[in-house]
Amino acid sequence: MMDLDHPLMVLDPTSADPYGEARRLREMGRCVPVELPQAVTAWITTDDATTREALSSRQFAKDPKHWRAFRDGEIQHDWPLMALAVGQTMLNKDGSDHARLRNPVSHAFNRRPTQSYAPRIEQITQELLDRLADEPAGAVVDIKSRYALPIPMGVICELLGIDDLAMREEFGKHTGILLLSTATPEQAGRAHAGVLTLLDELVAVKEKQPADDLTTRLLQTHLDGQLNRTELIDSLMLLVVAGHDTTVNLVTNAIKALLTHPEQLALVREGRYSWDQVIQETLRHDPPVQRVFFRFALADTPLGGVTVKAGDPVIIGLANASRDESLFTDAGSFDITREHPVTGLAFGHGAHYCLGVALARLEVATALPALFDRFPDLALATEDHPRLASQAMNGLCALPVRLRP
User: Fold this and answer.
1) Which CDD domains does the entry mention (predicted)?
2) 244, 149 in Cβ contact below 8 A?
3) Beta-bridge mates of residue 216
4) Domains contained in the chain, CATH given
């Protein structure tokens, strides 16, 4: 009988083959015990049905107060993945507290407000393409840092009212380190402190100069007594990080997939399949988030053929579920023509379903066709594409391309 005292695998954030690791996990079971840094153990879901159940069942909560090892002081404060598991944000709360933290920002990401951002997204996209067009023929550029990153970062910063370009760059530098599982405690600590300092500066600006932006609205919610100061700052941090990083990975992963599958790209260019189908298959084949930390069992609960004991943490294996062979034929292949029998889990499921789905889809649906229309001869400049060393995110360190021959 499996339990957390006997992990079956150590999760490797530096793995060059995360989907091979996911396949091996599925062969062990639908929910299996694994080891994280500093010998912290947790269950991880490995297929679609079990992942979906863990995301939707009321027997699993998000608040780390239900994590037995954390509550009992067994988890050190400098644990490398602490930022993924704790924090005063909507991600780590349940019920009324979750609604209280989610509601103040939900309106900004509803479909109707999101569509109003379309002209600005198109403008940012065209400005970036114009800069890329100035590169000489044959030049190699990193399409991730030069294109995939600035679009969502620019949009979320404008939504939050972060107008200072130097501040935007500082946010990008610090948040990138926070998501790396290979960062030392000192590096992670400096990055976290750097983000907090920037957010304090942002709030101070909005206190003196309120504006029509999301930071000002959250600040007013804090002043009205609905959010405390920690919740305000942590919510802003979540918006900065989640508001751009997942979209960066989605755009980058889609570009790589199309450039390594020219026959698929041809189907889109011929108009036989849509860019929406490219996005949908990328979300399945190479989703932007690899794992979500954590859900906690409220009582001894059956899940995926095992019993998860009260207080046990469960990792949501989104990338594991995305290539579930019981749902998808030839699950490891990128195929925009395939049927998707279920709604994908890349953006979550249940009460914590990602607020920014509509905005992310709009950004990607703008970025991809614009890039390939402007640079029809776009090609990979190398066959080596190192992956981010992250337990949570699923992306590339960089994606060097040649815009023109």
Assistant:
1) CYP107-like
2) yes
3) none
4) 9-402 (1.10.630.10)
Matching residue, tokens 């100069």? 209
User: What confidence tier does 111 reach under pLDDT thresholds 50, 70, 90?
Assistant: low
pLDDT, tens only, 324-345: 999 999 999 999 999 998 889 9
The reported pLDDT for the residue numbered 84 is 84
- Identify the helix (H) or strand (E) that includes residue 45: strand 41-45
pLDDT at 182 over 80: no
Q: Report the pLDDT value the prediction gives residue 283, as an integer from 0 to 100.
A: 97
Q: Please state the pTM of the whole predicted model.
A: 0.95
Listed range (33-37, 75-79, 150-154, 277-281) with the worst mean pLDDT? 75-79
Residue 266 is predicted with a pLDDT of: 97
Structure tokens given for 252: 């980058």
Within 8 A by CB and 6+ apart from 124, the residues are 150, 151, 154, 155
**Exposed/middle/buried for residue 219 (C-beta within 10 Å: 0-12, 13-18, 19+):** buried
Whose tokens are 């395939």? That residue is: 338
Q: How many CB atoms lie within 10 A of CB 224?
A: 9
Query: Within 13 Å, how many C-alpha atoms sit on residue 83's CB side?
Result: 26
- Greatest Cα pair distance in the chain: 62
Beta-strand pair 379-380/60-61 = unpaired
Region 378-397: what's the mean pLDDT? 94
Q: What b/e readout covers 326-356, taking b as 16+ CB neighbours within 10 angstroms?
A: ebbeebeebbbebeeeeebbbbbbeebebbb
Parallel, antiparallel or unpaired: strands 306-308 and 301-303: antiparallel
* Phi, psi dihedrals of residue 294, rounded to the nearest 5°: -130, 175
Q: What is the mean pLDDT of residues 85-106?
A: 90
List Cα–Cα distances, 376 to 188, 256, 262, 270, 271, in angstroms. Answer: 40, 14, 12, 13, 15
